[in-house]
Amino acid sequence: MLTDAQAGVLRGLAGKRAAIVGIGVTNVPLIRFLAGQGVQVTACDQKQENSLASELTSLAGLDVQYLLGPGYLDALPGFDIVYLSPGVNPGQPEIEAARRAGVAISSEIDLVLRLSAAPTVGITGSSGKTTTTTLTGLILREDVRRHHPGRQVLVGGNIGAPVIERVLTVGPDDLIVLELSSFQLKLLEVSPRVAAVLNVTPNHLDVHPSMEDYIWSKENIVRYQRDDDWAVFGADNDVTQLMAERAPGQIMFFSVSRPVPRGAFLDGDRLMMRWSEGAGSGDLGGSGGSGTGDTVVARRSDLKIPGMHNVQNVLAAVAVCAALGAEPGSMRDAIAAFSGVEHRLEPAGEIDGVVFINDSIATTPSRTIAALTAMERPIVLIAGGYDKHLPFDEMARLALGRVHTVALVGVTADKIAQAFEEAAGKAGVEPPSIIRADTFREAVGAARLAARSGDAVLLSPACASYGLFRNFEERGRAFKQLVSEFAAEAGKAGE
After folding, report:
1. What angle, rounded to 10 degrees, do the helices at 129-147 and 308-323 form?
2. 125-141 confidence digits (pLDDT tens)
3. How many CA atoms lie within 13 A of 129 on its CB side?
4. How would you class 493 by CB atoms within 10 Å of its CB: exposed for 0-12, middle for 13-18, buried for 19 or more?
5. How many other CB atoms are there within 10 angstroms of residue 446's CB atom?
6. I want to staple 462 with a disulfide (CB 3.0 to 4.6 A). Which of 83, 231, 368, 376 is the partner?
7. Domains and CATH numbers, the chain
């Protein structure tokens, strides 16, 4: 049975003229949902019908109109509401024209937050959000399994299945955990009950007009919270510390450098949770946890995921789950069992004493820096791809002495090579050997040939995949396939 709030939202949508911009993984379920609620739906996409065959087949039988190909955005001012796919730039002239005409601009996530009867958790950051979101979901599911069997914990947003498909099936005792990008957050006018901002560093400046706009979008995750909601911030990041000063709800922090007044922190080898009155009360749907004091939740030596950045991710998940009332035992067991997420420092194989690491998720220099610092072997780095207009100088500086060879591919190859040459010049050392490749296969093959026994070949591109692959997942899987092929060749040669 619908709550009064849910019924009110759905009544407000019925009969409205809605344009859905982008027909893809996220929006196909949204189209189905809205059409089922009596909304007059028009699906819009720059692709032509022959390129959307599978998506259109899945929508067959629904009362949906289509605007495809050139001019697909021209009619937006004539709608009541426009829902944008996360990959669509809301600053496009046609969308701005619709906004000026009084059209509401929204998204699947905004609708999910308005419709959810369950407490919602939102996690964002320039890096680490997928790992943190995944682990948060695992901890909460473990806690529910122990204390409240039958409750649901849905994980979605920027990962997993679109939550809109199940949002009306969750109740007030359930939980929804969402990974949220700056694109999803920019359109929000409602915030999750529990929000986490892990870090904010330059990213997506090819889409956001400025760093200030990027920060503003991230801060939407807490901007509309109530005073009894919870927000978790990274204490080791200057931007998130400033956000914490403006947050309207209750605050926790996490840090690898120092104890925090309330939240999670690293103390030597120990991952600690500092509880206080109000934390762990379970009033947001959790099972109820500890009330006060410091608790050892895990030890760094027990973590299966390498790198200090992953310690930060684990601490963030601990703080979020503490706000929801999860018990330390549930945290401890879930953390100990967690082996990471695909494409995030993922072992991809070993050939002749060389390990191959898939870190395709690293679409920014800061993510590649985290990967470099996590490695304990000499590195052959594979980098390059789509230009997000981010600087590579700090990445190059920190790579000196760690990376002996760089295999570059994509439009950013020259830009990255220049950053390495300038960093080496400033340091008075020789730059790494630079290999330019025309294809991804060529780059991986060249990296393999340049690697010596004891090295690591690290795919950590510091760039998005566009122009070479549809997304970082496809790039990571291509890397793993190539490693598998090279391993097979090496095996035959050794017979």
Report:
1. 40
2. 988 898 999 999 999 99
3. 28
4. exposed
5. 19
6. 368
7. 15-106 (3.40.50.720), 110-337 (3.40.1190.10), 346-493 (3.90.190.20)
